[in-house]
Specification:
This protein has 377 residues and is α/β, with parallel strands linked by helices. It folds into three domains: 2-55 and 92-156 and 248-325, 3-Layer(bba) Sandwich (FAD/NAD(P)-binding domain), CATH 3.50.50.60; 64-89 and 160-246, D-Amino Acid Oxidase, Chain A, domain 2 (2-Layer Sandwich); 332-376, no CATH class. The protein has helices spanning 11-22, 47-52, 92-104, 175-181, 221-231, 277-296, 302-330, 332-341, 343-351, 359-366, 370-376; strands at residues 2-7, 27-31, 44-46, 64-66, 68-73, 76-81, 87-89, 109-112, 116-121, 126-130, 133-142, 163-172, 185-190, 197-202, 206-214, 241-246, 259-261. Strands 1, 2, 8, 9, 10, 11 and 17 form a seven-stranded mixed β-sheet that branches. The chain has a seven-stranded mixed β-sheet with strand order 6-5-13-14-15-12-16, with helices on both faces. The protein is globular, with a radius of gyration of 21 Å.
């Protein structure tokens, strides 16, 4: 009988395992893949995500320190560079493998190459079926991503207006050419998809190129992605990979009496940027801390305690990221013109990924200025 089983060894699962191991729990971490494994992702790691880690990342994992942004809308372009770091880029297979090793160093048990197929929860335990084996645990954390069906045992499946579809590929390129094209700036293309954008991110020896948008509005994401690649000068043959991203800020059940959802499984994603790593790390840590509290105090309401913990730590971030996404994608022309003509708005906008501001503070700052901005553009 384990104290805790964790399904999924991505950032949420490995962070939960490390936290649980530090609390002295007997932990089993299970993942269907053997690590390192490929993960489709733009590969941007925010300052918020870095702040949640209880260790420093080695220099060889952080490929580029990003200090600028290039924003495109139609034929209009804005370039802005700051004197502070906005984010870093990295390769997810390397990053996720490192997080798994940081969990293993605490002494948690790890079983890779086994897919969690199902679980059964009763008043005393959770039985977890993975491969040909059945494991028993007092509690279970589901951190298996947005496409895994396990989460639907706790919450309903999202409709197509509650998640996005992304297509991503890696385009090899020499670093000199990357430096000449982007340097240490991320490139965003707005207007290519509703509730989404296209991106070109610089890495070490390659670009991450992708598009993402609301699922119900993307009838043929592969064709859209090929068009985006060609339009931006990438004429080769590339392997395209797709994945789903839930919109954060939507109220969803994320826990039952013995099962907690974390990361993408819970829908903890920034609706404006699509970034989920920070909230995966923090929700995984919160889930493990809540289980540790429950083991000490059986009268604790596990589900309520976990939900309140996450709401306190990042509930406003997700809520206001959704509001910001709806504002931008409802009036894209107005939004982009404001970015292009108002330096103070763009500066405030870039403070959010750098963790120098929040969506809530940005919206509160913007609202009283909106009438004057509209009259000036």
């Amino acid at each position: 009988m384990y104290d805790l089983i964790i399904a999924g060894a991505g950032p949420a699962g490995s962070s939960a395992a490390r936290e649980a191991g530090k609390a002295g729990m007997n932990v089993l971490l299970i993942d269907k893949d053997r690590f390192p494994r490929y993960k489709p992702c733009g590969g941007g790691l925010s300052e918020r995500a870095l702040s949640y880690l209880d260790f420093s990342l080695p220099e060889n994992i952080c490929e580029r320190s990003i200090t600028g942004a290039r924003i495109r809308f139609g034929d209009r372009v804005i370039d802005r560079h700051k004197d502070y770091r906005l984010t870093v880029t990295l390769t997810r297979s390397i990053f996720d493998d490192f997080l798994l090793k940081k969990a293993q160093e605490i002494g948690v048990h790890v079983a890779t190459g086994k897919k969690v197929l199902d679980f059964r929860e009763d008043s005393e335990k959770v039985e977890v079926r993975a491969g040909d084996e059945t494991y028993r645990s007092k509690y279970l954390i589901v951190a298996a991503g947005s496409q895994n069906r396990l989460k639907e045992r706790v919450r309903d499946r999202d409709g197509k207006d509650r998640y996005g579809i992304c297509m991503v590929t890696e385009v090899p390129e020499k670093n000199d050419a990357i430096d000449a094209r982007l340097g240490n700036a991320l490139e965003f293309h707005f207007g290519v998809a509703r509730m989404g954008y296209g991106w070109i991110f610089p890495h070490d020896g390659y670009y991450s190129v992708g598009i993402g948008g609301m699922a119900k509005d993307m009838s043929n994401p592969r064709r859209s992605m090929i068009g985006f690649l060609r339009k931006n000068g990438f004429a080769g043959s590339y392997k395209l990979r797709g994945h789903l991203i839930p919109f954060g800020g939507i109220t969803r059940p994320v826990a039952s009496p013995r099962v907690l959802l974390s990361g993408d499984s819970a829908g903890f994603v920034d609706s404006f940027t699509g970034e989920g790593i920070a909230y995966a790390i923090k929700s995984g840590q919160n889930a493990a801390q809540t289980v540790a509290d429950k083991l000490e105090d059986d009268d604790l309401d596990l589900a309520e305690s976990y939900q309140q913990r996450c709401k306190k730590d990042f509930g406003d971030d997700l809520k206001y990221s959704l509001i910001m996404a709806k504002i931008m994608h409802s009036w894209p022309e107005m939004f982009f013109r404001m970015l292009a003509t108002r330096d103070d708005f763009l500066d405030k906008f870039l403070e959010v990924p750098a963790m120098k501001g929040t969506y809530k503070s940005l919206i509160r700052w913007l609202m009283p200025r909106m009438p004057g901005y509209l009259l000036s553009i």
